[in-house]
Specification:
Largest sheet of chain B: 2 strands, parallel
Order of helices and strands of chain B: EHHEH
Number of domains of chain A: 3
Shape of chain A: elongated
Number of strands of chain B: 2
Radius of gyration of chain A: 26 Å
Largest sheet of chain A: 5 strands, antiparallel
Helix content of chain A: 25-40%
Order of helices and strands of chain A: EEEHEEHHEEEEEHEEHH
Number of helices of chain A: 6
Distance between the termini of chain B: 15 Å
Structural class of chain B: mainly alpha
Oligomer: heterodimer
Strand content of chain B: 5-15%
Strand order of the largest sheet of chain A: 4-5-1-6-7
Helix content of chain B: 40-55%
Shape of chain B: globular
Chain lengths: 258, 64
């Protein structure tokens, strides 16, 4: 068996009076398809993904993406599940968003998309204006996060943001008010910080919608033993700690029998 | 869940009280964690317990 497979995204529709063909398919629409195809196949970190090559054919516009057969088999199972359940809530965020983008275009431009793979008896997913492939929004709730990482970039002309490289969730782009960056007293680049941010989180899977993050607070994560800082805390804490018998106090608040 | 050490209420009670017999142990553990760059965590339960007697601004949140 060849270790290369493909997915096929067929776009049908009309543009004014012209039927969609490779000659009437704008490069902007093509860019969109290519971008979404990458997200469908590799929703996670895409830096180390296998090669995806592309070919366009007539009929109306047939977009063919060749890549590793393993990825294609996985994707075939995904569309099988989507076709059966008519639901995209179970998908990883990027894949779900890609399906939503196709659905939005289908409604806006009255196109229809047919997605299938080279796997034998591949399911065929059809998206047009009569279908409804959108996530159920109630799964996405407002949440607050603390991200620990290294700041590698901060600024921007219109979309001001901070790039924070974290070990747990990769690189985050956190929208930040310009005033915050203007008023920073010290250089924050290439230093470790904690950023408190708000955004959307899936209440079922815990997944974070990375594009939705906005800045709340920058917290200095000082990993040096800061004698002065601890001295201040200790003197405040001693106002009550000196008055209690520690073990009894703990047992008392935890409801143990003395 | 990221790797690190979860510090509980009794750790903070001893770490913040220099007169506690176990203060020295807590302080040394803390220095060890910093030296080894082990991330430190506190749970909301511990914060709630601590705040029965103290206040949140007494906890070393800057390093947690």
């Amino acid at each position: 068996m060849e270790n290369i497979g493909y997915i096929e995204i067929i776009v049908n529709g009309v543009k004014g009076k012209l039927k969609l063909t490779p000659d009437t398919f704008d490069i902007k629409e093509l860019t969109e398809i290519i971008e979404q195809a990458e997200k469908l196949l590799f929703p996670g970190e895409r830096k180390e993904r296998p090669l995806i090559s592309y070919r366009m054919e007539e009929g109306s516009v047939k977009n063919i993406f060749k890549t590793s057969f393993q990825a294609v088999i996985g994707f075939s199972a995904v569309i099988g599940q989507v076709v059966t359940t008519h639901n995209i809530d179970f998908l990883e965020l990027n894949t779900a968003k890609a399906f939503e983008t196709f659905q939005e275009t289908a409604i806006k431009k009255d196109y229809s998309f047919e997605i299938k793979t080279s796997v034998e008896n591949s399911p065929l997913l059809k998206i047009d204006k009569s279908t409804f492939y959108f996530r159920t929004s109630e799964n996405w709730v407002d949440a607050e996060f603390y991200f620990y990482g290294r700041i590698t970039n901060a600024g921007g002309k219109d979309k001001v943001n901070i790039h924070l490289v974290t070990e747990e969730v990769g690189t985050l782009y956190i929208q930040t008010p310009q005033g915050i960056l203007e008023n920073l007293e010290e250089n924050i680049l290439y230093k470790n910080y904690v950023i408190r941010a708000k955004g959307k989180q899936n209440s079922e899977t815990g997944e974070i919608e990375k594009q939705s993050l906005s800045f709340i607070e920058l917290i200095d994560y000082n990993t040096k033993y800061d004698q002065q800082y601890l001295k201040k805390l200790r003197s405040k804490a001693m106002t009550w700690l000196s008055k209690i018998e520690l073990d009894d106090w703990l047992k008392d608040i935890r409801g143990y029998d003395a | 869940m990221p790797e690190g050490t979860l510090l509980d209420t009794s750790f903070f009670l001893r770490f913040l009280n220099e007169n506690d017999p176990l203060f020295d142990n807590a302080d040394k553990y803390y220095k060890y964690f910093l030296q080894k760059e082990i991330k430190l965590f506190i749970s909301t339960i511990s914060i709630a317990e601590y705040c029965v007697g103290g206040t949140i601004d007494q906890l070393p949140l800057r390093i947690l």
